[in-house]
Amino acid sequence: MKESAASLNFIEHIIEEDLANGFPQEKLRFRFPPEPNGYLHIGHAASICLNFGLGEKYNAPVNLRFDDTNPAKEEQEYVDAIKRDIAWLGFKWANECYSSDYFQQLYDWAVQLIKEDKAYVDQQSSEEIAAQKGTPTSEGTPSPFRNRPIAESLDLFERMKNGEFPAGSYLLRAKINMASPNMHMRDPILYRIVNAAHHRTGTNWCIYPMYDWAHGQSDYIEQVSHSLCTLEFKSHRELYDWYLDQIYDSSLLRPKQREFARRNLSFTVMSKRKLLELVQKKIVAGWDDPRMPTISGLRRRGYTPESIRKFSDVSGISKRDNVTDVSLLEFCIREDLNKRATRVMAVLDPVKLVITNYPEGKTEMLSMENNPEDPNSGTHEVPFSRELYIEREDFKEDGGKKFFRLSLGNEVRLKSAYIIKAESVVKDKDGNILEIHCIYDPESRSGSGTEASMRKVKGTLHWVSIEHAIKAEVREYDRLFLDEAPDSHEDKNFLDFVNPESLRVIKEAYLEPYLSNATLDDKYQFQRLGYFTLDLDSKNDRLIFNKTVGLKDTWAKQNQQVAPQAQKAAPAPSNQGKRKALNEIQQISKKLTNFSGEKLESAKSSILELAGEVSYDELEPLFNTAAKKVGTRIGVMLTLGVLLKKGQARNEAINGFIEAALADDNEVLKEEAEKVNSL
């Protein structure tokens, strides 16, 4: 029985429609095409889960294809990391492919284009070519080499391949249409000279295809039915199809490109270039630093494949760019670890507790439930003795009525053990507490069935036996950035928002001895502290645990927001914040024509700050704002500028809105339109 239409994402709707129109299901084929110039991050997980998920759903093969067309930035290390991450997520690819496998075929097709007078060798600089391309509202200027004789272009192209020329001296360009409203169609570059060894082909090639040329042709060679790309490639689709038109054989399957929104996550950056900068400047320890949004970093931090796949499923596939709150990702890992993590006890900031009426030298083994969420998880034993460690923050001499942990004269229960009462403290000369002296009720042992064991007390504390505890290093990780969108500020570098408290290292934590046998695959809940996992740096004589996530969303509390973790089900992404941002922009914009000087600049700054929370689909309807509402049009223009800087592609609606503003009498609107038009 097929899923209901409502449960399908829009990509699945496209595929279902194709199947309904007669496309053979056995010809469905997908691919995941990363460039090996960095490690995969949580944003890539959306594409991985989409493509491989479709393969699983339709029993169709999915290729892993490395688009390795830029040897200056690509390395085998990245290839290996990408394969490792995809396999860890639980997906299997049908074929391992490389665009470099097709270099000869791509070259032969390029030669064919030259022979058909559809490509030519240009020898202008990239700056000259860019200047000649024109603007979306003005035609480009043809290259002076556009009509170079075919024989001459063929000769130069072969010599480019043979390494006779330095980088930047010649380019091969497709001859399409310098007047096209789509800037990508204005004689795009097919090949450039790169004097760098390729990680697979070595120095066999001196010229390398541009991504647009390699992308669609590789899909065609592999007979990919649905080429799924992120939204920035939507404006490239016309070029994708033009290239295919030049080589298409009607007896073969023709790929179809369709686009979906990339996944952005709050409180982090998703640009590989910026992630590489974090690594190179040693702000993090490497690509797999547990603070990084990379899949390898999340794995090292203790995230599970299931939690990341759940996050991708809950986040959904969208037609427009948006930002997913990191709390949703944290919700998914909490929900998963709650079901699988073994409950243990660890004390990170210890203070000594002495049970004065407990026999000296006695040790008894207490039973601890491994996981109350899993009835089949079993139990393990924990040693109990006269001298224990508890958390320093769990004791106050005078706690008051709202303090439900240990204080003088009050009772608490020690987890899975006895009820104790604090009677006195021992301090050093500076007044710091060295020891807490307590008495225990011998009849109150948990699970003993005695009347005393049933007695209710308000607090329960975790603890470890000093005699039996093992020492370990604990690394508590927090969000790497303090700002929700660290790379959205025009006047500041994203590094300005690095959280100086993103890593706290506790050199001597005390753990129950059960953890001495921990492995990298084990997941633990340190009672009342959070979820933890063993780190790769651990040795037999030096255990190191990473904090994956806390038991509660403390950031939500800090920001006075409702934590999604408080809900029974995972929260759905909401657009309320974006709607609010757009409404605020409209309210500010209405007053713009009444402002000048500092007031005007301040209002514009406010709009620019809010613009990062607005999507293009929300903004486009305002392009039709009445001409007399100049303030609103200025606000829309400012917001549009931010979207274009973030990667929004130009289209006819955008070009028309800019053209109308350039012809307007209002100087402020015209000035902002000129800025936007130059982007």
TrEMBL record:
One of its GO terms (cellular component) is cytosol. It catalyses: tRNA(Gln) + L-glutamine + ATP = L-glutaminyl-tRNA(Gln) + AMP + diphosphate. Residues 460-535 form the tRNA synthetases class I (E and Q) anti-codon binding domain. L-glutamine binds at D67, Y211. SUPFAM superfamilies: Nucleotidylyl transferase, Ribosomal protein L25-like. Gene3D superfamilies: HUPs (3.40.50.620), Ribosomal Protein L25, Chain P (2.40.240.10). A motif ('KMSKS' region) lies at residues 269-273. Residues 27-338 form the Glutamyl/glutaminyl-tRNA synthetase class Ib catalytic domain. Residues 341-441 form the Glutamyl/glutaminyl-tRNA synthetase class Ib anti-codon binding domain. A motif ('HIGH' region) lies at residues 34-44. InterPro entries: aa-tRNA-synth_I_CS (IPR001412), Gln-tRNA-synth (IPR004514), Gln/Glu-tRNA_Ligase (IPR050132), Gln_tRNA_ligase_bac (IPR022861), Glu/Gln-tRNA-synth (IPR000924), Glu/Gln-tRNA-synth_Ib_cat-dom (IPR020058), Glu/Gln-tRNA-synth_Ib_codon-bd (IPR020059), Rbsml_bL25/Gln-tRNA_synth_N (IPR020056). Residues 125-147 are annotated as: Disordered. It is found in: Cytoplasm. Keywords: Aminoacyl-tRNA synthetase, ATP-binding, Cytoplasm, Ligase, Nucleotide-binding, Protein biosynthesis. ATP binds at E35, P36, N37, T230, M270, S271, K272. Its EC number is 6.1.1.18. Pfam families: tRNA-synt_1c, tRNA-synt_1c_C, tRNA-synt_1c_C2. GO terms for molecular function: ATP binding; glutamine-tRNA ligase activity. GO terms for biological process: glutaminyl-tRNA aminoacylation; glutamyl-tRNA aminoacylation. Monomer. Belongs to the class-I aminoacyl-tRNA synthetase family. This is Glutamine--tRNA ligase. The lineage of its organism: Bacteria, Pseudomonadati, Bacteroidota, Cytophagia, Cytophagales.
